[in-house]
Specification:
This protein is mainly β and about 200 residues long. The chain is built from one helix and 16 strands.
Amino acid sequence: MDKKIYRLNDDISFRTCSLYRNPNTSPGDCTNFYGYEPDELRYYYCNQDGIHFHCSKHPEIELERSEDTTLYCPRCQKQIEIISIHSLTSQCLRALNREIFKNAKLIRLDDWYTPEIKRKVKDDPDYWINVDVKKDRDGDTIIVLYVGYKGAADKTQFFIKPEKLQLSNDHKDLDPAKILSKIEVTLRNRTITQTYDEDENSQK
């Protein structure tokens, strides 16, 4: 397994050890651990939350503590002042979270929709329904709802914009009146209903 050392700044880099997040029956590459035997097995825990500090100039060298607020590199002998080990550890954990969550999907809990999803909805035996959620040029959400007859290429396409409180359909596609009698969208402070018939579309 490839070892990773993360550069925090010009003086301090850090890594996670074998005991990061989980104890183990072996200390692995942890250099500051303690053992505990809750049953027949001996488990090892890291004394510094699985975070180990290294010299940025000499990444293979683990920094040592001369005082509670001072780290130093045994090779270059540089003294590095810190606020506290706890504060430095928290800073490293935040840096790790940036890597973990950089591609995470954003779920807005104050609205009824989940951004950036694409799925097929369980539908009627005679119809198919697909949902695709995108972003428009303003960064607002567009929920695209596709509805069609099974076995037919034609479809009707609706655009729901929650932030803009809009509901519309693509006039280039199948006329909604050919497939639906009504569509109703409930938003935070508004319900939009459109009813259809073969002769005239109505909206309220």
